[in-house]
Amino acid sequence: MEAFVTKVIENPNSFTLKTLLCVLKVYSSFNYNLKHRRQQFLDVISHALDSYLSRMNGSELLTAAYRFCLLNHFPSALLEQLLQTSVLEQIVEQNIHKGWESMVQMLDICLRLDRPPLPQPLSVPTFVLGNPPPRSQPVNPQLSQTLQSLLVGQTNTELQEMVVVENFYVLDGVLTKPPSNHTCVPETSSSTEEQRSPAESTQRIAVIYAPKSNFCYGTSNPRGLLAVKLRHLKILGFTPVLVTEQDLQSESEEDRTNLLRRLIFPEHTSETQPKMEQLDA
């Protein structure tokens, strides 16, 4: 994939529209790490696509914008073309392909949360978004049981399960706890801590169950959609924690609980480690 990046950068005009869209699909799906050439690669692809804008239909415009959004890149000319009322009406009326609604919703949330520096503010009109039904997915029973076991004795930590954020992302669990450096502040104090909002003065940990298909094969590198989810959760003030299939494979609930404790509360692990070493000695 690295060699192909070089080929694209050196001769972008040799690629057809179909090939450029395919390139975007591959690199966004795998969340490929372009390292120091990331911006150059994306700018070159954007510029190459600009020459096709007047000939691109609604489906092609939406597909390209969606793929760029996954890569946290927002070409203004492409977005302005896509977000014209006539183009959006065509997309809605023709029901261009399966899944277009999810692509439009992703574009909307990326524009709202990533806040790209565009020449003019852009947003997705409500008539395209419609009223999507609340997202839901089945509870993972093992994860649910382990999270509840983890919180035994944690009186200052609250657990909410299957939380929907921004009417788009489903979180298997949200743990809310006071910040580790939280101290009581007198009522008469005018400190910064006192002036913080409830969301700012608490720590929110988003627990996400991620099956193997969410990662690039044989690695811990999250694929496109999961990578965007993590990016947006951080923007929203969450600390995301991924729990994989392998993490829940232990037959012992105690082992699963200890593993999740290390993932979710690493500060507790570091505090208890010296004590355990003393006991072993």
TrEMBL record:
UniProt region (Disordered), positions on chain: 180-201
Cell location: Mitochondrion
Main location class: mitochondrion
Recorded GO MF terms: RNA binding
PROSITE patterns hit by this protein: RAP
Pfam families xrefs: FAST_1
Biological process, per Gene Ontology: mitochondrial RNA processing; regulation of mitochondrial mRNA stability
Keywords attached to this entry: Kinase, Mitochondrion, Transferase
Protein's gene: LOC106512243
Name of the protein this chain belongs to: FAST kinase domain-containing protein 2
Cellular-component GO terms for this entry: mitochondrial matrix; ribonucleoprotein granule
Top-level taxon: Eukaryota
InterPro entries (alphabetical): FAST_kinase, FAST_Leu-rich, RAP
Limits of the RAP domain: 205-262
This protein's record includes keyword Zinc-finger: no
